[in-house]
């Protein structure tokens, strides 16, 4: 039986994963505090008054900016203070204030150097998430599929390269790819699997070294004739989930 191995959120798009013990899923919503901020890299056209999906390349992201993995960041839900280590003195600022955003933009502008395409700007909008697909999905990775990739490339592959919300144990490799259209109970919640996840160059970046040391999309394409690894789902009934919770397919 499949079960949750671990849970993660990514409060600021492109930056550190944050491990969770539990999460409260809500019908029709993404993970709480997941990708609620992004950092615009030059003008993106994003309007906080009318928030809409924009491609990830408009923002700082691992696909384009591997150096982001050098930073260790942490977000506080109660205060919206975002803390950064890994570049000079430790930094912290309240992203909910103009002053905090301006300080963050200045810090990151110095860190990003020549990878800046224009002014950096911290963005958010009530209820909006800067996801790669523009829909309130939650994302799953099957750890057995990651193990299969590791076997192909001949070295360990950190599952966090795939930046999912829910990591599953107890499945066959690539079993997740056949779940589109099916429903499942997971912990106290129910989900409907909606879409396979196509992998990009972000997965090539080591979370430990910030180096592009693998070609995961290329490996998937050579071995499977596609670049899919993982799956998105809609939450159709809310409830609490946690590590160790079983997933039962209908």
Automatic annotation (TrEMBL):
It comes from Kaistia terrae. Residues 101-250 form the MOSC domain. It comes from the Bacteria. Gene3D superfamilies: PK beta-barrel domain-like. SUPFAM superfamilies: PK beta-barrel domain-like. This is MOSC domain-containing protein. It holds the Pfam family MOSC.
